Structures are given as C-alpha cells and as structure tokens.
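My current task is to audit a protein record that another person submitted. Alongside the sequence sits a line of tokens, each denoting a local backbone shape. Where you disagree with what is written, explain briefly why. This is what I was given:
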Amino acid sequence: MTWRELSPERLFELKDALVIDVRSPCEHKAEYIPCSVNIPLLEDDERAIVGTIYAVEGEMVARRKALKIISPKIPDIVDKILELKKQGQHIVVHCWRGGLRSETVASFLTVVGIDCWRLTGGFKAWRKVVIDDFARDDYQISPVILHGRTGVGKSNILCELEKIGAQVLNLEELANHRGSVFGALGLAEQPTQKNFESELWLKLKSFRAGPVFMEAESKKIGRLTLPEFLNRAIASGQRILITGSVACRVERIVHEYAGKFSAETKAEAVKAMQNLKVRLGTKRVDEITAFGTDGKLDQAIEALLIEYYDPLYDGHIHKNSPFELTVDGDDAAEAARTIMQWSQKLLSEVHS
C-alpha cells in the first residue's frame, strides 16, 4: 500500500474528503482550502528557525534540523488524523506546493497501513484552479440581484429564500461584513482575500443551473474585492427592488446592532462617523454621534438613513431602474415567498 497523487481539479470529487493541511498555522490562516484541517508538521516559530538555518547554513543543515524537530511529532500527528477520520472518508494531505512536508506525512500514514492521497502541487496548485475557474466564468447560473435602500431587509430576505429552497449567494456573510461604513461593527475580522475567494468558489460549485439570488454590492465589501466576473454578474442580472418603511428599517438595524456596542465598538462607531463629515457637515455629524452615545440609537439610525444613506442609495436605484419586480421587505418571509413565486413563474414561462 502506498499513497497516491490527487490532482487539485479532482479534490472535491472525493465524497466527504478529510483534507489535512500540514503547513504551519500562520500559513493556514492566511490561505486555506475550505473545510481543511490544520495539523502542522512545524509550528510558526519552528518554521522560522528552519528557514533561518536554510538561509545561513544551507539546505542540508536545514533539513537535518527539521528532521530533529519533526521526528518526535510523527506518532501524534498520525493519531490526530486517525481521530478525525470518519468511516469511509478519504484522507488528502497537502502542503504549500506538494513537497517534502506532505510527502513526509503521507509516507508515515502509509507505513502504518493508512491509505491516503497527496494533493499534487499542494495549495499553490489548488489556488490556480480557483483563479482559472474565475477567469473562465463558466458558471451556469442566472443571477437575480436584490436592490434597495439600507435596512429594507435584503440580507434577511436572502436568508428566507434559502430556507425555502432557493439558491442564494450571500456575499456579505462570506465576507463577514455588512457592506457599509459601519459594516464591521460587532463582527470578527474579515477573512483574507484568498480565503474569501476559496469559500466563494466552493459555494459557486454547489449551484445547479438556474436562478441564484444575491444582493447588489459594490466592487468591495469592507477590505475585500469581488472578482471581476461577479461584478459583471451583478451588473447584468435580473433586478428586484426591495422597499420598506422607515420605522421598520430603523427597528431592523437597531435589532442588528443591539448588544454589540461595547466600549471598543462605540469608539469604532464614533470614528466611522467622522467619514460622513464631507456629506453631512461637522455639526450634524456631532449631533448624530451624540444621539448614539446617549443611547438614542433609533434617532441616530433614522437620521443616518434619511440624511446620508437614502440619498446615496437612491442614485444607485435610479441608475438600475426599471426593475423586473418590486417587493415590500417589511415582512422578510412574505417578501421571499413573493420573489420565489415570481422566479418559478418566470422559469415555467421560459420552459413552456
């Protein structure tokens, strides 16, 4: 029995693969294959030591040092992999470019009688698959784009659509950002650009031909940039306008941010407010900031909607009109049902 090579194109053809990334933790955090598990051969500090020896004393000395560090770890690494492996799962081991690290782990798994694959070319080759797929833009989907003012419930409607069986690409969820000046408040750090694209690629691969619902986004969500093919899809997709009352929009946003205003988050919000001075003026920004710091969050949000966000979004809405459908988003579940019925009717007309 020996380990076998697996091309990155075939990785997700394996049913329920256990993908083991043997690179260091910092490498895995910066860029990973979705659903992979990091079981490092070298920790970050150990990798740095070996790298320094390589640069100063050469490859042979560095390899010997790495061997001394790795050798005692091998039994535990094998045990960790076997603890994670479920019945019938395929084990796939990878490193940066299909070199010594993945070969070492694959070899020791083979020695103890465990069948496994090694990813040919490692993460570097898999990343090329993602980039090439994006460049080809061969996704057989029909984008349906939700437009509307801030707070009308576009994200809520996407969640409701997914519940009733629609195909949904929730870009803000993947980007871990709400897509506005205050979009990062109360959320953990955004993923890296590469990890965002990897998760996006995997999601796109799960879609069958047909409508895919997503929100109208600009070219960037927080600090992450959308791939160009996705910008084209948003610009060319069928358009739905979501409307909503000011009262419901304010309530929805207050609920979204409620409980997330720690002292640190409040400071971030006050800092973000300073970006609005060009449009609203220093005096008005200070007044709205005071509403928020005094606990009058609903007043602050209503002022921001009417004076800042609505004029900003109305230009975008005018630019993208006319719309195929207009839906009231105050009741997100009802809005999703209306959109789903419209979509199914449209599909039946196409196929008739």
